[in-house]
Amino acid sequence: MQSCKLEKNKAYIDGRWVSAASGKMHAVLNPATGEKVGEVPDLSAEEASAAVEAADRAFDGWRKTTAKQRCSLLRRWYELIMDNQEALAQILTKEQGKPLSEARGEVAYGASFAEWFGEEAKRTYGDHIPSPSPNNRLITILQPVGVVAAITPWNFPVAMITRKIAPALAAGCTVVLKPAEDTPLCALALAELADQAGFPAGVVNIVTTSDPVSVGDTLTSHPLVRKVSFTGSTPVGKHILRQAAGTVKKVSMELGGNAPFIIFDDADLDEAIKGVLISKYRNAGQTCVCTNRIYVQRDIKDQFVERFKTEVAKLKVGNGVDANTEIGPLINARAVDRVESVVRHAQEQGAELLYGGSRDDAGELFFQPTLLGNVDESMEIANQELFGPVSTLFVFDDEAEVIERANATPFGLAAYFYSRDIGRCWRVAEELEYGIVGINEGIISNEVAPFGGVKESGMGREGSRHGIDDYLEIKYLCMGGI
């Protein structure tokens, strides 16, 4: 099977598949069954530094390739990812747990960044600037920033990687990637396909480890690394910013969220329920743009709760390889313990359990789709990223009130609202303090649109024509004596 060829048990550095110098291996477990599905080298900080040095050696040659050459290689990588879509989806579900239908969608989504940024490589234009002097000519050119350190999370172990590697390669940068310790197999499979596509040695490097702190600190403070791209929690992002400050690296941060989903009384309720279901419960609620707080206008609250509860009760929990599964396991025991604790504490603070609320019989790491009512902003559950299949319901009376409450958070990644009033759509969209706003839509991500947050949800954008910007430096050339 193709999946066997893609399942690697070595790290990828300088065009070679390598073991840890210590010989240590790190087990990868299936969260649905607890079974070991693979193992990868447990690399040290010193070996991460060696990967940076390999990327630095490769940079001089890679930066001199033409945009068309880089475009061709990225196009070939895209084609190989799509040719192996099913094999990659099987690996993804085994190590991460999400339903196969979602895994297949993620692989296609991830591949789209290789295609998109391959094309964008040819569009990194400079400028001619009209000079204030007749004897001067002023132009700007764009050049690759250098070696990029990318650190990716476990919840989208294909898409989060291609969303960082593809623009870096398109710009002419080389990359050292540290995937999440729970989900390294997808990263190594993508490296195998990059190798097959023909990327030169050292251009793409994958460092696997069970020690993310020391390896991550090495990558984010290394003097040869000129750019850091991180997706993960806000506390870790703040630590990385401090690490990168020592050598004044360029940084992109896609951090935590606390997304509101607002349903006004003039909304199409059928569509709103569809939107919030997919926004909240895909990947068992383990996405950074997942709905965290559902705000329902008072006049339609009872109708919404009754219908939404019915739909939540229909969701099928189980192993991601089963065709009827809609909600897979959480990633590990810590995640389940945390969600269970958050739900219990919310009830102690006065939240009403409307559905679910417990671990599921499907297995040790499964949690029931859950619905909590009577929630308000004084409760701890309202002020944190849930990262689990738990919905919290808030009631509001008017537009100004709900905007103020939705914005009352340090986070600003994604927000959603449903309304059929065109004036309200413009007003609310402009007033919400979020980098991404879904209007009558629960799925917002694609390769052509800029993805990123404001406030403590991060900086920079991924995807779209803006996604390549942070991997490029602007150089101004002033020509005199004309």
Structure commentary:
The protein is an alpha/beta fold. The protein has 2 domains: 2-255 and 457-478, Aldehyde Dehydrogenase, Chain A, domain 1 (3-Layer(aba) Sandwich); 259-446, Aldehyde Dehydrogenase, Chain A, domain 2 (3-Layer(aba) Sandwich), CATH 3.40.309.10. The protein is built from 14 helices and 22 strands. It has helices at 2-6, 45-63, 67-83, 85-96, 100-120, 159-171, 185-197, 212-221, 234-245, 269-281, 301-314, 333-348, 399-407, 422-431, and strands at 11-13, 16-18, 25-29, 36-41, 127-129, 137-144, 147-151, 174-178, 204-206, 225-231, 250-254, 259-263, 291-297, 352-355, 370-373, 390-396, 411-412, 414-418, 436-439, 454-455, 458-459, 472-479. The strands form 6 sheets. Strands 14-15-16-13-12-18-19 form a 7-stranded mixed sheet, sandwiched between helices. A 6-stranded mixed sheet has the order 9-8-7-10-11-21, sandwiched between helices. Strands 5-6-22 form a 3-stranded antiparallel sheet, with no helix packed on it. Helix 3 crosses helix 7 and helix 8 packs across helix 9 (234-245). The chain is globular and about 75 Å long. The termini are far apart. 53% of the residues are buried. The model has no long low-confidence stretch (mean pLDDT 97). Residues 17-476 form the Aldehyde dehydrogenase domain.
Q: Beta-strand level of the residues, as a percent range?
A: 15-25%
Query: In CATH terms, what is the architecture of the largest domain?
Result: 3-Layer(aba) Sandwich
The fourth-level CATH homologous superfamily of the largest domain is Aldehyde Dehydrogenase, Chain A, domain 1
Could you tell me the CATH topology label of the largest domain: Aldehyde Dehydrogenase, Chain A, domain 1
Widest β-sheet, arrangement of strands: 14-15-16-13-12-18-19
